[in-house]
Amino acid sequence: MTLTEAGSGELRGCIGHIAADLPLGEVVGRMAVAAGLDDPRFPPVTPEELAGLRIEISVLTEPVRLLRPDPAAVVPGRDGLIVKAGSRQGLLLPQVALEYGWDAESFLAATCRKAGLPADAWRAPGVVVFTFQAEIFAEASDGREGESAA
Fold this sequence. Notes:
Helix content is 21%, strand content 31%. The protein is an alpha+beta fold.
C-alpha cells in the first residue's frame, strides 16, 4: 500500500505484506491503516490529510528466486526485487525503477541499500534475490479510480 500526496506526488507512507497467508481484502485494509500510521519514516497521517492523499495498491505475484543474481535477468518496470541476507530484507516495487530511471544494476543496488546492505551485496554468497511482478491499482490523478499494470 502506497500513500502519496495528490498534488506533489511525495511519498507519505508505504507498507506491505508479502506472504499470501490472508485474504486480499483483509490485507488491503490492514496495509491502508499501517501505511498511514506505522511507516517509521513519516509521522502518522492526520484526518485532515486524508482527502489530499492518493492510494496505490500493488498486488504482488509469487516471488521467484534468481539462482544466480544477474542484472540481465531483471527487467526494470516489469520486475520488482526482494533482497534477503540473514534478518535483513529490502523490497522495491517494479514502478520504483521507472520513477527513478534506474537500470537493472542500479535497481539491485537500491534494493540492497533498502535492506541496510552494501550496494553490491546482491553479488555476495548468502544473499538471496527474488523477482516478482505486480498488478497496480491506483486512483487517477484527478481522483477517479484507475488501474495500471507494471
